[in-house]
Specification:
With 86 residues, the chain is mostly beta strands. It is globular and about 30 Å long. The chain starts with 8 loop residues before the first strand and ends in a 14-residue tail after the last helix.
């Protein structure tokens, strides 16, 4: 069960794939303001890594930590090119 709270890590859908985000703020219209992870390499243009955008609540799931079956039910970026920090 997903209990969204500010600052929590989650995954958000952009195009066909899901990418890691941080929840910044719940908006009155039912969407979330999120910050995309700085290492994302998006398959679809329109969002830049480490930016803050609004995402529909239906396009946000928790990070699925320790939930192997849940992770297998979504499509994480085929690129797998999340850049390492170092």
């Amino acid at each position: 069960m997903f209990d969204p709270s500010v600052g929590r890590a989650a995954l958000a859908c952009h195009g066909t794939f899901w990418y890691p985000i941080r929840l910044v703020r719940a908006l009155p219209n039912g969407a979330w303001r999120v910050q995309w992870w700085r290492g994302c390499n998006f398959a679809t243009p329109g969002v830049e890594p480490n930016t803050v955008t609004d995402v529909l609540k239906s396009d946000v799931v928790d990070s699925l930590w320790m939930d192997r079956m849940g992770r297998r039910n979504i499509r994480v970026s085929v690129f797998g090119k999340w850049r390492k920090r170092c």
